[in-house]
Amino acid sequence: MLRWLNSLMAGLIGLVLAAPILVVAGVSLNAKRSLDFPPKGLSLSWYAEIFTDPGWRGALIASLVVAAASAALAVAIAFPLAWFIWRWRAPWARAFEVLGMAPFILPPVITALGFLSFWSTFGQYGEPWTVVVSHAVFFVTLPLVTLSLGFGAVDRSFVEAASTMGADDRTVLRTVVMPLVRPYMISGFAFAFVLSLNEYIVAYMVAGFTLETLPIKIFNALRYGYTPTMAAVTVLFVLLTAAVFGLIARFGDLPRLLGAWIKQD
Amino acid sequence: MIRRAPRSLGEHAPILFPALMLVVFFVIPFGLMIAVSVARRIPGGFYEPDLVFANYERFLSAFFGGVLSFSLELAALVAVVAVGIGFPFTYRLARLPRAAQVRWLVFLLSILSLSEVIIGFAWSTLLSRTAGITNLLVAVGLMAEPQSLSPSFGALLAGMVYQAFPYTVLVLYPALARLDPALVEASRTLGASPLKAFFTVVVPAQRNTIVATLIMAFVFALGSYLLPQLLGRPQHWTLSVLITDQAIYQSNMPFAAAMAVFLVLVSLALVGLSLLFGRKEEA
What does the alpha-carbon distance between residue B142 and residue B134 come to, in Å, rounded to a whole number? Predict the structure, then answer.
C-alpha cells in the first residue's frame, strides 16, 4: 500500500515537472503560427527556423561561444585554486574559496548589478567579451566544487609513492593527479557550460543591448508575442541540457558529485 | 610530497591567477556597487561619487515596504512548499536503486539549469487559453470553455515552486543519502510503521537539515527576477525585479545598488544562519 503510494507520489512529481516541457514540445510542432495544444497539424519548420533565421542562429552561436569560453575560463580559475588548497597547508587560501562560492549563493541580480557597475566604471559596458569574464566568475563555483571533490578523492599514498621515487610536483601533477581528477574537471566544465548557456540576468545587464544570447533573444521575442519558434528553441535547450548531464552521469559518478557519499572516517 | 605551508614565491605562484581574477572581478565590482549605493544621482541616468544616504531613505516609503514584505512572504511560501514536497521525495529518491537515482538526478539537474526565461515561457504556455491545462478540463467535461490562468498569483507560485523544487532536492540529497539506514531499521524492528518511522525518526533526526534547506530555498526564491514579470501582475513584483527595473529601465543605479546591498545583507545573514544549523548536524 505504502509502496504504491510512494510510486504514485514520484509519478505525480515527475509528471508535474515534465508537463510544461511536454506542452511546449507539443506547441513547437504546430503547422501554423499558433500556440495550440494539442498541435494543429505537424511540422518541424520551427526547428528549421532556428538554424535558417539569422537572428535565432546568431543568438544560438553567441550563446554557445560564450558558454564554451566562460566555462573554460572558470575551470582555468578553479583548477589552480583547488590544487593549491589541496597541495599546501594554507588556511588563508580558503578565503578565496569562499569568494568563489559567494556569487552562486547570493541572488543573481546582485552579481549582475556588481558587474554592471564595474564594466560601466571602466568604460567596457556592452563589450561582448565582458560577458565571458562575468560568466566565468559567476559560475566558477561549479568547477571549484567538483575539483575540490576530485582532489579530495586522490589517495595521497599514490602521491607519496611518486615523490619517493623522485617525481617533483609538476611530474606528480601531470602523471598521477591529473588523470585522477580529469573526470571532475570535465564535469565542472559541463556544469558551468550548461548554466552559462541558460543564464539571463548577468548577460543582459552586462551586454544585453549589444550581444543577444538565446535567453535574451527569447525574452525580447516574448514582448512581441509568442511564436512556436520559442517553443522549438526551448525544446532544443532542454535536450542539450539533458544530454550534457546524461554524459556526466555516463562517464562520472553523479551521486558522488552531488554529495552522496558515506563518510569513510 | 610534504603538505606544509608554502614558502617561496614559486610555491605561491599557482594561486596568483585565481586570486587576481576573483579580487578584480568579484570583490571590486562588489565594492563599486556599495560605492554607487551612496552616490548622488544626477538626472539623466548618471551619478557622481558622494556619500549620501538618500537612496537608503527611500526604503522607508510605503511602496518599498509593500514590495519588501511581498517578496519575503512569497519566498517563504515557496520555500515551505518546496521543502514540504521535496523532503519526503528526496528521502525516497536516496533509497532507490542507483540507476534510477541517476535518471532522476539528470532530470532534476536539467530542470534546475533551465533559464528563468524558459521556465516562465513554458508555464505561461501550460496555463494559456490555447494550449493550457484548462483544455484538458474542458475535454473531460469539468469546465465549459478554456481560459487563461496566467498571469496570476497562482501561476507565479507554481512557476517559482517548479524552479525551487530541484534546487531543494539537491540541497537535501547529500544529507538524506548519508542518513544511517540502521536508524530506520531499528524503529521498524521495534514495530513502527514506515510512516511512523519517517515522522518520528527521520524527520526529527534531520531537523537542522530541514531548517537549513528552508533558508537556502528562501534565499534562492528571493533571487527570482523574471518569473514575477512573466507569470505575475505588476503588484507581484519582487525586490529582485525592482532592482533590475531601477537599474535598466529607470536608469537609477544608486537606488538599485542600495536595494542590492540590502538584499546582500539579508541573504548573507540567512546563509550564515543556515550554515550554523548545518554545522549542528555534523556535530
Answer: 9
Q: Nearest residue of B to residue A24 by CA position?
A: B122
Q: Assess whether pLDDT exceeds 80 at residue A68.
A: yes
How high does pLDDT run on average in chain A? 87
- Kindly list the residues from chain A whose CB atom is less than 8 angstroms away from the CB atom of residue B89: 9-10, 13
Q: Are residues A33 and A65 both part of a single domain?
A: no
pLDDT band at residue A8 using 50, 70 and 90 as cut-offs? confident
- What span, in angstroms and rounded, lies between the C-alpha atoms of B129 and B107? 28
In a domain, A51, yes or no: no
For residues A125 and A116, the answer to whether their CB atoms sit within 8 Å is: yes
**In-domain check, residue A234:** yes
Residue B47 belongs to a domain: no
- Among the partner-chain residues A78, A107, A118, the one whose CB lies closest to the CB of B28 is A118
Task: Give A179→chain B minimum CA distance, Å.
Answer: 18
Pairwise CB contact (< 8 Å): B110 & A260:
no
Q: Are residues A89 and A137 in the same domain?
A: yes
Three-state secondary structure call for residue B40: strand
Do B125 and A117 lie within an 8 Å CB cutoff? Answer: no
Does residue A2 surpass a pLDDT of 80?
A: no
* Domain housing A10: 1-43
Q: Is residue A8 less than 8 Å (CB to CB) from chain B?
A: no
Which portions of chain B are predicted below pLDDT 70? 1, 43-45, 279-283
What is the tens place of the pLDDT at every residue in A199-258?
A: 999 999 888 888 889 999 988 888 777 778 888 888 998 898 899 988 888 877 888 888
Residue A265 in this model has a pLDDT that exceeds 50: no
Cβ contact (<8 Å) for B165 and A17?
Answer: yes
Residues of B in contact with A87 (CB under 8 A): 1, 3
- A108 shares its domain with A25: no
| pLDDT in the model for residue B282 | 54
Cell of A3: 509502496
Residue of B26, B32, B177 lying closest to A137 (CB–CB): B26
Please check whether residues A2 and A110 belong to one and the same domain. no
Predicted confidence (pLDDT) at residue A263 exceeds the cutoff of 50 = no
Same structural domain, A73 and A6:
no
Of the ranges A49-53, A128-132, A254-258, which is most confident?
A128-132
- The whole-angstrom distance between B267's CA and the closest CA on chain A is 6
Q: How far is B126 from chain A (nearest CA, A)?
A: 6
Of A81, A109, A234, the CB nearest to B118: A234
pLDDT tier at A261 (50, 70, 90 boundaries)? low
B118 to chain A, closest Cα gap in Å = 6
H helix or E strand, kind and range, residue B82? helix B62-93
- Which is more confidently placed, A253 or A101? A101
